[in-house]
Design a protein that fits this description.
By secondary structure, this protein is mostly helical. The protein has two domains: about 70 residues, no CATH class; about 45 residues, no CATH class. Helix 1 packs parallel to helix 3. The longest helix is centred in the middle third of the chain and has 15 residues. It comes from Ramazzottius varieornatus. One of its GO terms (biological process) is mitochondrial respiratory chain complex III assembly.
């Protein structure tokens, strides 16, 4: 049991924390899940050791960028033409807050006014 716990701790050392993704960071989420799974540290009993080993192997492959090295890409950009740094900046918490705080554009305001005109007037009381 102690060996699995140490292997998980080694895997977590390879997984960096991303301060730009507050509350949405996968590294932090993994640290929480490992601490929940190994509540007693080395002395924790694992209910399904085969699944635990398979999960550890999968996480190690992701942390080591196994498939990125195995299937090398010629281009370093994504479908929109942005590089990894630009994509990381786009999905940062700072950018998401800025997008949510942005005021609606003129088209959105026009559409809301048009919808207001389409609503039927309230019935007249006689």
């Amino acid at each position: 049991m102690a060996m699995r716990y140490k292997q998980y701790l080694q895997m977590l050392q390879k997984w960096p924390l991303d301060p730009s993704k507050q509350g949405r960071d996968l590294g932090k989420h993994l640290r929480v899940k490992v601490s929940e799974a190994f509540k007693m540290g080395d002395a924790t009993r694992i209910a399904d050791p085969a699944k635990c080993d398979a999960d550890l192997a999968a996480l190690n492959r992701i942390a080591d960028n196994y498939y990125g090295k195995k299937f090398h890409r010629g281009r370093t950009t994504g479908a929109m033409g942005y590089n990894a740094d630009k994509c990381s900046a786009i999905v940062s918490t700072h950018m998401l807050i800025a997008i949510n705080e942005k005021q609606p554009g003129w088209f959105s305001r026009l559409r809301s006014r048009m919808k207001a005109l389409d609503t039927p007037p309230p019935p007249k009381i006689k």
